Amino acid sequence: MTIKGIIFDFDGLIVDTETPELKAWQELFRRFDVEFSFDEYAQTIGMIYDDTSALDILESRLSTPIDKARLFKEFKKRKVELIDAQPLRSGVLDVLKSAKSIGLKIGLASSAKLEWVNRYIQKHEISQFFECVRTRENVANPKPDPELYQATLACLGLKARQVIALEDSINGVSAARAAGVHTVAVPNSVTRIFDFSQAHLVLKHLTDIPLQEMIAFFEKQR
Question: What's the Rg (C-alpha) of the chain?
Fold first, then answer.
């Protein structure tokens, strides 16, 4: 077997953080009688964790300045409340267990902060599966730059062709492909509107095929 590792994205892939994030933004905008469209939100998916561009949109639609620092703090509080109620996405735990059982090295590559990632992999009791976690603190350039994947590969001690990446966003898929990693897109309810033809394989859910079949798919591509 030439596949020796698997790298997970976090936001939207392990836990659907994007649907709650959209809801939190929309609730905030409605306090000002302003609508925040799905299309506008979609442009921010896969960006860095503390992206505040939505507040720039809000302020541009109002006749007076807003306290962005205060509003962003309130947004983050509500977002966390909503995300805390989210389960692991379907199939995540099964893939982690399968990967562990067949001896794959398991990594995590996220443009979010380590504190954020740790909060949820510990909450859901899956931190022990990851041999390597690399986040925005480890690189100069987050996704779609390939640097996060390159850092994770180096940490795992594997070459790109030996690894499968699981991603839910276009930025994530672009980063993995640019790093030369076999790339599987597993869009969530928010990101499924995008064109994932750049991915080597697209699944509706991680439960669509067993991990061994996924590995076999890429073994045949050699």
Answer: 18
